[in-house]
Design brief:
The chain is built from 16 helices and 18 strands. The chain is of the alpha/beta class. The longest helix has 45 residues.
Length: 538
């Protein structure tokens, strides 16, 4: 018999497991299992070190992405894991990864649990319930870890991780249950001096976080990693209560790999202030944070007037893809003749990431006249060319696509309802003793299916509303084209609000960068594509 090619996936969730011989154990178990099969031969190995199968989705795991590519290319016939939870622990995703692999004619095996088949509905239910149980275990583990961290914080003990700027780690002389010596934070004076300077500037000088970061960068002071200071880093430091001797936990929580900010009333604080960690007095910390709140309130109390900016909602930075902010600067100059002070307003589009000294290679701001002149030239050319395009044909095709997507969602809902009917039949088998599952297991699965059905129906309803809105907009564009004799004349004579309306109907977005302005039009046609080009700025 021909040898069958086997791929093995090994995964550990935490970095500590990498050094606990967990990966070698999985490799040895898989190698021994392959030897027993006679016609199996190891072809490929995929290793994930310190990758959570619960917090990380399949699309974020490089090894799993490569595995799926190789499966599509038929580079192996069998996938072997030590246990099925090595593939993942997410009940809303991992079961379907397994089903997808089997659909590619890849056999999926586990050293401990054997082969996963899909010969009947019961196999699908077993596959789903396995990962539903793994997901529940991961949630329980997360809750236990969070509770442990909260307990450490309440007792004023360091809970692990990278020490905040201004501190370093030293051994505390205390040992945990595993016999490992705990570490504690101590003030690192070279960095603590800079921390005090940051609070001093924020409190005693009229300097916002941007000016503080700029001051540090111009003074040649770098962060611990040798990088320039940015606004988010300064703000996080000013808001960190550890500098006044207060450990805090529970600021954020992780939900399926995403960080969710928690309200302040749920935060966990130390029972008593830790005197040896105080770098700035509580009064200084409070004043710096009051200044942040004051600057935020002042900024929000005078919202920027956007009506005079044609591209206020569709302009993006071409370098970092951030939405551009319209701003008006007022320059004061004293007139020599009269001695009066004249105010000269200037309007521009500003990159928020560049403002915060983030990772953006573009400019800080772009003048409104130059940018909008380029875009208007593009619009005039586009509107002239679009006169020859059959927009109604495009609108009809787009409507058909939207309606097709809506029907696909409806079919999924019908399939899910059929699954629930099969589960109801399985409960009847439980009552008669003919089912391999207990009633509670199936009832829980039905509740999960009901939740999934409700979520899918919400998505369908949202898609229907969106489809209706898009179709209405397409109909508006078609009728709008028919009613305008001369696009250029109509646009040039319209007021700014109507110009913005016309722009919003035909332009999807505008990317602004130092060397070009890219105008992306909504209507996809040969004539429109010829207009969708980059105009160099002079």
């Amino acid at each position: 018999m021909a040898l069958r090619r086997v791929a093995c996936l090994y995964r550990v969730s935490t970095k500590s497991q990498i050094f606990d011989d967990d990966i070698p154990m999985q490799k040895k178990a898989c190698a021994d299992f392959i030897k027993k099969q006679r016609v199996w031969a190891l072809e490929k190995e995929y290793i994930e070190k310190g990758v959570s199968g619960y917090h990380k989705s399949a699309d974020e795991r490089d090894a799993l992405i490569q595995l799926k590519k190789d499966a599509t290319a038929r580079k192996f016939d069998i996938l072997l894991v030590f246990m099925f939870d090595r593939l993942g622990r997410r009940e809303d995703e991992t079961p379907f990864v397994v089903e997808w692999l089997v659909a590619q004619n890849i056999e999926v095996w586990s050293v401990k649990e054997g082969r996963q088949r899909f010969d009947d509905h019961a196999d699908k239910l077993i596959n789903y319930m396995r990962y539903w149980q793994s997901s529940g275990e991961s949630e329980d583990n997360s809750m236990r870890v969070a509770e442990k961290h909260n307990g450490l914080v309440k007792d004023g003990k360091f809970r692990g991780g990278v020490p905040p700027y201004g501190y370093k780690l030293e051994y505390s002389g205390e040992f945990n249950k595993k016999g490992h010596e705990r570490k504690k934070l101590v003030i690192f004076e070279p960095e603590a001096t800079i921390v005090r300077k940051i609070f001093e500037l924020s409190c005693n000088v009229d300097m916002g976080s941007f000016k503080v970061a700029k001051f540090l960068n111009e003074s040649g002071i770098v962060t611990r990693t040798g990088k320039n200071w940015t606004v988010p880093v300064i703000v996080r430091m000013l808001k960190n209560p550890v500098y006044k001797g207060d450990y805090v936990a529970g600021k954020v929580r992780r939900a399926r790999g995403k960080r969710v900010a928690m309200p302040k009333e749920t935060w966990v604080h130390t029972k008593e202030i830790i005197r040896e960690l105080i770098i700035v007095d509580e009064a200084v910390w409070d004043k710096a944070n009051a200044n942040i709140s004051l600057r935020t309130a002042t900024s929000n109390s005078t919202p920027q007037e956007k009506s005079e900016f044609l591209l206020s909602s569709i302009a993006y930075c071409g370098c970092c893809k951030s939405g551009m902010h319209p701003r008006t600067a007022r320059t004061k100059r004293q007139l020599k003749a009269s001695g009066e002070t004249a105010v000269y307003p200037s309007k521009y589009y500003l990159c928020p990431k560049k403002l915060r000294m983030g990772n953006c290679d573009g400019q800080f701001q772009y003048g409104i006249k130059k940018i909008e002149a380029v875009v208007l030239d593009e619009i005039y050319s586009y509107l002239e060319n679009i006169k020859a395009v059959d927009i109604s044909r495009f609108a009809k095709a787009h409507k058909e696509k939207l309606l097709k997507d809506e029907k696909t969602k409806s079919r999924k809902i019908i399939a899910l309802k059929k699954e629930m009917v099969r589960l109801e039949d399985e409960i009847l088998k439980c009552l008669s003793g003919d089912s391999a599952f207990c009633e509670n297991q199936i009832a829980q699965t039905m509740r999960d299916k009901a939740d999934a059905l409700s979520a899918l129906e919400q998505k369908r309803d949202f898609a229907r509303a969106k489809t209706a809105a898009v179709i209405g907009r397409l109909d508006e564009i078609v009728s709008f084209k028919k009613s305008i004799v001369s696009w250029k004349m109509e646009f040039s004579q319209a007021d700014i609000e109507n110009q913005k309306k016309i722009i919003g109907m035909v332009i999807d977005c505008v990317y602004i960068s130092p060397k070009s302005v890219d105008v992306i039009f909504k209507l996809s046609s040969d004539a429109a594509d010829t207009c969708n080009k980059s105009e160099s700025m002079r």
